Amino acid sequence: MVSNLNKLEREIGELIKTGDNLLIDFFEEGKEKKTKNKSHVRFSSGYQEWYSKALEIIRQILPNRIIEFERLYNEDKRKGIDSSTYGIQDWLLGRRSPVNDFTLKKRFDDFAAAVMKFQNQLRILESAHARFNSTIFDIQQIVRADLFDSELDAAKELLKNGFLRGAGAMAGVVLEKHLEQVCISHNVPIKSKNPTITIYNDTLKNNNVIDIPKWRFIQRLGDLRNFCDHNKEREPKKTEVEELIEGIEKITKTIF
Q1: Spatial separation of the C-alpha atoms in residues 71 and 60, rounded to whole Å
Q2: What is the rounded distance in angstroms from the CA atom of residue 227 to the CA atom of residue 229?
Q3: Whole-number CA gyration radius for the chain
Q4: In Å, how far from its chain's centre is CA 172?
Q5: Is 82 helix (H, G, I), strand (E, B) or coil?
Q6: How far is Cα 137 from Cα 112, in angstroms, rounded to an integer?
Q7: Is 99 helix (H, G, I), strand (E, B) or coil?
């Protein structure tokens, strides 16, 4: 699911780039209209496909702005045409500003009005892209949290059935993966090729992501995990594994 979201994010980014190129074409088309040179028509031919795709993106991600986006294309409840009601559809259909009977000049700059409307559509699409990035992050966090919860539930089941080392080892994997993600989220570089809970924990403390009490708490959990994995002198106690699992649950819910 996350990979599909990332694919959609790339598609939105490409749509924004296409829009930027169409804007350049629009300016060129406007210049050629003034010089009666009709060779450059890429905006008029490419806009409709762009609009259809962008409209669906806005409908899904920013539904509260869909009406605004549509009205920039076509103001359907206007009583007359002026710079505020003139839309992109008007330009594409060849409608132009009325001419003043006395001055014989256009009453408003139709090209400037259409360009402004298209630029506003681009800005809305860009805001949808920013919103989508935030949404992807939220979804990734939810998916990851659900996965960790499932693994901790499995650890609890192992503990319930007396498999103490297995329960501690499984819970320790969750802690390690969570600390790795916290480092990634805070852009904290990990120098070790084979980082451990201790390395992640120290790195987060040294980069002021976590304070000393949290560092000591994680250090304690790391010691319990290592005891379950490596110490063969005695079996871990049930209370120790319970402490480990409960502590990891707390970390995954409070440190991001």
Answers
A1: 17
A2: 5
A3: 29
A4: 29
A5: coil
A6: 38
A7: strand
Rounded to whole angstroms, the Cα distance separating 94 from 96 reads: 6
State if pTM tops 0.70. no
- Per-residue model confidence as pLDDT tens digits over 16-29: 999 999 999 998 87
Q: What residues pair up with 106 in beta bridges, in sequence order?
A: 99
DSSP for 166-231 reads HHHHHHHHHHHHHHHHHHHHTT-----SS--HHHHHHHHHHTTSS-HHHHHHHHHHHHHHHHHHH-
**Contact in structure between 97 and 110 (CB atoms under 8 Å):** yes
Identify the helix (H) or strand (E) that includes residue 247: helix 238-254
Number of H helices, E strands in the chain: 9, 0
> What does each C-alpha distance from 73 to 31, 88, 243 come to in angstroms?
21, 5, 61
Distance between CA atoms of residues 142 and 149, nearest Å: 10
Angle of CA points 12, 73, 24, to nearest 5°: 60
Over residues 136-159, the mean pLDDT reads: 79
Strand partners, 99: 106
- The ranges assigned to domains in the chain are 2-132, 162-254
Instruction: Round to whole Å and give the CA distance between 189 and 72.
Output: 45
Tokens of 117: 């409307």
pLDDT exceeds cutoff 70 at 38: no
Look up residue 139 and give its amino acid: I
